[in-house]
């Protein structure tokens, strides 16, 4: 895709041309899709490593979203290539259009083919991971709810990081972002999103109320920044905006939902501090490192 963005035969043309701008936007969407695929691999690996069944279920939902997204990309790419064919018949994009479009068609097909396999393996993992959940909660219904809220917030932090980062990549690639002075806001949002995610993780893992409050405030600030960015982009209305309006609004609303949910579950996790989850997780961590020693029981006592 970088070749599509940097090919001199197209880049030397008039960059205000609608066909070129639409193709550039489509290429940006494909880059974000590629990053989403890498994120899917990470979330799957991380879920198996930490035996988090909720995370594996969320991967299945992400599969569905990627399938729908990849199908829409087929039609958008087909339309973009037809537009390019009018003024850029000799460009590599047009000459290799059939191969590029074929690769796009293969993506949702491959995802759908492997869905039954993933569902089967997820069910198997659910049975295997139940032991860890029981070992941590000890069968306590209260501690089980605390553990579920903890895992949900961890999941929200990961997805907020990804969707927030992906949305900012789009803003950086949008033709008029730099002209309208959004660069500073976008860079700040990317850096602060990562920082806030780290604060959120340590706040619930260490059960630190000051850090948890800072995380909740940070999520609120990111929500305000995201709304501001959407407002600024909407003020740039034009023909290129019509091409990005639907996926942009969908991504932004999803990001807002993730941030709002992070605030809600952040508050729930703060209320659960001191109920024993931290001690159990610390004990499990020492056990994995080989540092945990079972307490000695005096049978003569």
From TrEMBL:
Keywords: Membrane, Transmembrane, Transmembrane helix. The chain crosses the membrane at residues 25-45, 57-75, 105-126, 147-171, 183-204, 211-236, 248-270. GO terms for cellular component: Golgi apparatus. InterPro entries: UPF0658_Golgi. PANTHER family: TRP C-TERMINAL DOMAIN-CONTAINING PROTEIN, UPF0658 GOLGI APPARATUS MEMBRANE PROTEIN C1952.10C-RELATED. This is Uncharacterized protein.
């Amino acid at each position: 895709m970088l070749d599509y963005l940097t090919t001199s035969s197209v880049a030397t043309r008039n960059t205000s041309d609608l066909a070129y701008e639409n193709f550039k936007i489509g290429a940006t969407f494909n880059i974000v899709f590629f990053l989403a695929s890498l994120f899917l691999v990470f979330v799957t690996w991380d879920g198996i490593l930490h035996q988090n069944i909720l995370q594996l279920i969320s991967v299945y939902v992400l599969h569905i979203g990627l399938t729908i997204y990849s199908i829409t990309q087929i039609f958008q790419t087909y339309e973009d290539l037809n537009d390019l064919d009018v003024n850029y018949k000799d460009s590599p994009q047009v000459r290799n259009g059939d191969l590029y479009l074929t690769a796009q068609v293969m993506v949702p097909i491959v995802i759908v083919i492997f869905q039954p396999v993933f569902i089967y393996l997820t069910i198997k993992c659910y049975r295997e991971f139940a032991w860890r959940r029981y070992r941590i909660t000890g069968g306590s219904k209260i501690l089980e709810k605390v553990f579920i809220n903890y895992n949900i917030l961890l999941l929200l932090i990961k997805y907020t990081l990804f969707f927030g980062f992906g949305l900012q990549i789009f803003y950086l690639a949008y033709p008029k972002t730099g002209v309208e002075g959004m660069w500073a806001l976008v860079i700040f949002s990317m850096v602060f999103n990562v920082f806030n995610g780290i604060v959120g993780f340590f706040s619930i893992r260490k059960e630190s109320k000051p850090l948890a409050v800072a995380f909740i405030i940070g999520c609120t600030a990111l929500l305000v920044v995201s709304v501001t960015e959407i407002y600024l982009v909407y003020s740039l209305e034009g023909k290129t905006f019509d091409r990005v309006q639907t996926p942009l609004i969908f991504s932004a609303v999803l990001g807002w939902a993730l941030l709002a949910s992070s605030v809600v579950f952040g508050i729930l996790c703060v209320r659960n501090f001191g109920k024993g989850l931290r001690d159990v997780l610390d004990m499990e961590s020492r056990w994995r490192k080989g540092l945990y020693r079972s307490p000695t029981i005096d049978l003569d006592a």
